Amino acid sequence: MTERGVVCYSLTVKEKTPQNKVIVTNREAGRDYFILEALEAGIVLSGCEVKSLRGGKASLSGSFARLEGGAVILYNLYVDPYEKGGRENAEPRRERKLLLHGSQIERLKSQTAEKGRALIPLSLYFKHGLVKVELAVAKGKKKYDKRADIKKREVQREIDRAVKNRGRR
Length: 169
Fold this sequence. Notes:
The protein is an alpha+beta fold. The chain has one domain: Small Protein B, Chain: A (Beta Barrel), CATH 2.40.280. It contains four helices and eleven strands, in the order βββαβαβββββαββα. A hairpin with a 2-residue loop joins β10 (117-127) and β11.
C-alpha cells in the first residue's frame, strides 16, 4: 500500500523475534484492559516521524484506534517532532492510518461491535526497518477486577520471597 510515497506491508504475526526493536509499550493497557486478541499492523508515517521514532521519542498513553469508513485510524499517539525536521514535521498527535488487510478489518469490526470492546495499541516497534503497531481487541476492567489482579500479584510476590529465603535458613 502506498500513501505519500511511503511503502509499508502488513502481516499478522503473534510472536516477536529478537531482531525487532521495541520503541514504546503501552503499560496502561495491561492494567486497565483484558486483552482478548492481538495482531500486528503497519502504520502510515512521514519521514520525520520515523526518524523521531528511531530515537524512541513516542508515547502510547491514552491512545486508541477506531474503525472509520473501512479503515482503522489510530488516535492520540504522540510522536515527538524531529529536532532537525523544520517545517516537514507533522502534528505530534495527528490521526494515523493503520495498514491492515480487508479480512482483518472485517474481523475487527465484528469483534468491536460488542459492547465494552475497544481497539488498544499495545506496542510500537521496528520490524525489518518498518514501524509496526501491535493492536489488541480489549475489554475494560472493572475496579474489582483490578483489585483481584493486585491481590494475585501480592500473593505471588510473597510466594517468591518465601522460596528465595528458604535456602538461607
